[in-house]
Amino acid sequence: MNINFNKNNDGLVPVIIQDDRTLQVLMLGYMNEEAFEKTLQENIVTFFSRSKNRLWTKGEESGNFLTVRSINMDCDNDTILIKVIPKNVVCHKGSFSCFGEKDAKGFLYELETMINQRIEEKSENSYTYSLFQKGINKIAQKVGEEAVELVIEAKDNNDNLFKNEAADLLYHFLILLKAKGMQMRDIEDILIQRNR
To answer: Model-level pTM?
Structure first.
């Protein structure tokens, strides 16, 4: 990677830290060339702390290290994006992210939005809307069928079939949530509370 550490007079470049699993932005820090090299060598994020005026490995006091999964540059080679697996909370104030609580927003949320749109727009050519129109009993039955099919595929050795059945179950589960007047965020909140 050809990072332009000389673009700013202080030799620092901004570093965006993102959760590799959820893609949530966790924090912003700065690196100089030495911090970047240390991060590459140890696979643990090390910044240059402007307040401490030294290298600072995130988690060196708290134990909440950031394990590197991937490193990318922006188009100008003057900003770094590091996807990590955080050991625990990231913010020094105790929240999961420096930008607030855990807020996973991946493709499943996009799919949930598409499902909601098809239902609200009453798309007559849509399987989603057609199933939704049949009511809660039919939707719940379909979720049950997909769950059974997933269990059956779990006992076999065909990973592709298993993944497809898992996708079918998630898709129908999102329709069931809509029929119950709930969102995936409601379920996520329960999981977050249990995790505490």
So the answer is: 0.59
